[in-house]
Specification:
3 helices, alpha+beta, single chain, about 40% helix, 6 strands
Length: about 120
């Protein structure tokens, strides 16, 4: 399935389904013990926005309400909502791997950033 910009379940090639709404992405899990679906918004502090439901429709409704409530809370309290993904991340590597990455990028005539981006895009296909 393709991503619905309004927010919907997105079936990926990576064995995991996600909910997407207003730029926020949430995972979908199932609890055998509680016989319910549950999840949390990815890219934020642990447990900042969590949701649950007995059906996928209930889960998606609670997911959207959680995001709307969070955004309303931030607005009412003059807070800047945390962005789920900024496009920047830090990675720690061994010096050997860092050297290999830098020399590979130089040999290809690209930046290290572009090399990493290409590697992630290729692996995501």
């Amino acid at each position: 399935m393709s991503i619905n910009k309004k927010g919907s379940v997105k079936m990926t090639k990576q064995r995991v389904n996600y909910l997407i709404y207003k730029g926020y992405t949430g995972d979908i899990n199932y609890s055998l013990a509680n016989n319910c679906l549950f999840g949390k918004v990815l890219g934020l502090d642990k447990g900042l926005i969590s949701y649950e439901g007995e059906t996928l429709k209930d889960l998606e409704h609670d997911f959207r309400n959680g995001i709307d409530d969070y955004l309303a809370y931030c607005q009412e309290n003059d807070l800047t909502p945390k962005k789920p993904f900024t496009g920047q991340f830090s990675v720690r590597l061994s010096p050997e791997l860092h050297r290999l990455m830098a020399t590979t990028a130089q040999e290809r005539g690209i930046t290290v950033n572009k090399l990493i981006k290409q590697a992630i895009e290729l692996d995501s296909l």
